[in-house]
Amino acid sequence: GNRDQPILRDPQRTKEADYVIMESTYGDRLHDKEGEGHDYVTDLAAIIRRTLLRGGNLVIPSFAVGRTQVMLYFIRQIKRDGLVPEIPDFPVYVDSPMAVDATSVFNEGINPLVFPRLYLSITQEESKAINTDDEPKVIISASGMCDAGRIRHHLKYNLWRKESTILFVGYQTVGSLGRKLLDGADTVRMFGVDIDVKAEILKLPGMSGHADRDGLLWWLEGFEEKPGHVFVVHGDDEAAESFTSLLREKGYQADAPFSGTA
Fold first, then answer.
1. With CB atoms counted within 10 Å of each terminal CB, which end of the chain scores lower, N or C?
2. Contacts 24+ apart (CB under 8 A), 148-152
3. What is the residue-wise DSSP string for 74-91?
């Protein structure tokens, strides 16, 4: 995991292991420098304000556990500090049963995620009703890469609207719908039809929950003795192979096995 993230605890190092299986999502690069030192709350507030004032919806594809709760934490601060003064009471919808369940965990203490006009959608009827309401709003829905789940329906209703914004707050793997949108696709095919992409497509830099190359190394270097072997998985081929080569240079026994490798 990435370090210095709001709400979520930093990853803990492990002292010893015979074998390690580790991810490599950002194994060939560092996180965007443009994200360093950014005030996420100020950046997000500006995006919300711009989108809602022009009459559009802000759609945030977000992973149900972790990322959704961080976004709610930011929005709570935005509302508390009055950073969208023209529409201080803008509505926010979380449309993902799993995200709702994960968010409810915070009800056990002083809840840092609750604010006025936060709506949690559970049923399909509640989900559909979001898109029949013309009031500009923030919609947070899964899945984070747009390849499944309720987010696809919200994209269907907003991608073609120049007033709306699609904001990515996590990694988009090669081949995913989210990656195609970030790469500037003019049209995408959804539900058997081609949809023109007219909405503003943005990314909030530095928001990944995955550690970058240096973060992965930091965690691995926490072992008192090098593990017997490191298996590098869960990353694009280039990232996995690059990180594996780096580990070998640093004296680790490492491989990036492909599916079916014996």
1. C
2. 149/96, 150/95, 150/96, 150/121, 151/59, 151/61, 151/95, 152/177, 152/190, 152/191
3. HHHHHHHTTSSTTSTT--
> If residue 241 lies in a helix (H) or strand (E), which one and from where to where?
helix 237-249
Angle at CA 48, nearest 5°, toward 197 and 35? 85
Type of residue numbered 245: S
Spatial CB neighbours of 142, under 8 Å, sequence gap ≥ 6: 61, 62, 63, 64, 68, 96, 98, 99, 149, 150, 151
Specify whether the CB–CB gap between 223 and 53 falls below 8 A.
Answer: no
Per-residue model confidence as pLDDT tens digits over 123-176: 999 999 999 999 999 999 988 789 888 999 999 999 999 999 999 998 788 899
Q: Rounded CA gap, 194 and 144, in Å?
A: 21
pTM equals: 0.79
Which residues neighbour 145 within 8 Å (Cβ) at sequence distance 6 or greater?
A: 61, 170, 171, 172, 173, 176, 177, 178, 179
User: SS3 for 259?
Assistant: coil
Q: Roughly how many angstroms between the first and final C-alpha of the chain, as a whole number?
A: 28
The answer to whether residues 38 and 205 touch, using CB atoms and an 8 Å cutoff, is yes
CA distance linking residue 79 with residue 41, whole number of Å: 10
71 forms beta bridges with none
In angstroms, the CA 128 to CA 15 distance is: 49
